[in-house]
Amino acid sequence: WPVGDPPPRVSVVIPARDRGRLLEACLTSLRDRTRYPDVEVVVVDHETTERRARRLIDGLVDDPDAVVVPFTGPFNFAAMCNRGVEAASGEVVVLLNNDTEVVADDWLDEFVGQLARPEVGVVGALLLFGDGTIQHAGVHPGVGGLMGHGHKHRPGDDSGYHGRLTVVHEVAAVTGACLGVTRALWDRLGGLDEEHLAVAYNDIDLCLSARADGLRVVLTPHAVLHHHESVSRGFDDDPSRNARLAAEVAVMRERWGDLLDADPAYSPNLTLTGRDFTLAEHPRATPPWR
User: Fold this and answer.
1) Would you call 12 helix, strand, or coil by DSSP?
2) Tens-digit pLDDT profile for residues 184-227
């Protein structure tokens, strides 16, 4: 899909705190392995004190294609992204974790081309673990929990269920670790919910809002990055986070109801337990003859 002439500016918003080695790898890959011609880097600095990270962030101050946004207070991923987008100048916004590295140099061309389609609201990338296996290829409600990542741990070059990882396809949601949206739609939807979904599910909420607005959420397997998942923040199975996570799950259930389980990309004949994309013992749909 064409990106337009001239191509729109893309603002890549990266929330960051310390972890200088990760941030350096992310910024280096963004600059050296991305061929898209007009990229603005927006780093949202959450009280960084680590020397290596501090040096990197301070070095962006004189860069005409970079913006540093200070952020203070408790960790709030949604608020950090919102502040970053407010400071961004691009027509297209990409949320990007600081623990990612670009693999495919045309990933932003893919994003912009997909977002130029009038029916597409949000686009996500194929994310790989450091060992080259799949970390994220779209989000599917109910697969291994409230929201599961399809094709997880399969080889990075796997063609996917019925070849779906060879083509762009619609999914229920994509992860905020690498998520693209137009600035116009972001503003219309109000960004991420920093009050009720500060840490988890804010990306899913945004995707569901786009779908409720009549737009599609798509996964492009041609945009490929490495994602060292949750290295900089940890995982949500930490007991200290359980109360917060339970509250965010409750918000999602109340807000979206049955729509939370609606998946355009995962058949009710497939299992929600065990290995994804295998047949369920008891399908979750009533056959029409019954």
Assistant:
1) strand
2) 999 999 999 999 999 999 999 999 999 999 999 999 999 999 99
Cα-flanking dihedrals φ and ψ of residue 214, to 5°? Answer: 90, 15
The model's pLDDT over 198-209, given as tens digits with 9 standing for 90+, comes to 999 999 999 999
> For residues 228 and 163, what is the distance between their CA atoms, to the nearest angstrom?
25
Give residue for tokens 């070095």. Answer: 59
Q: How far is CA 225 from CA 100, 122, 214, 222, in A?
A: 7, 17, 28, 10
Amino acid 98 reads N
Helix (H, G, I), strand (E, B) or coil at 173: strand
What single DSSP character describes residue 268? T
> What are the start-end ranges of the E strands in the chain?
10-16, 39-46, 66-71, 92-96, 100-102, 120-128, 134-136, 139-141, 147-149, 169-170, 178-182, 216-227
Q: How many Å separate Cα 282 from the centre of its chain?
A: 32
Side-chain half-sphere of 163: how many Cα atoms within 13 Å?
1
Contact by Cβ (8 Å): 121, 217: yes
* Residues linked to residue 218 through DSSP beta bridges, in sequence order: 123, 170
Cβ pair 49, 20 in contact under 8 A: no
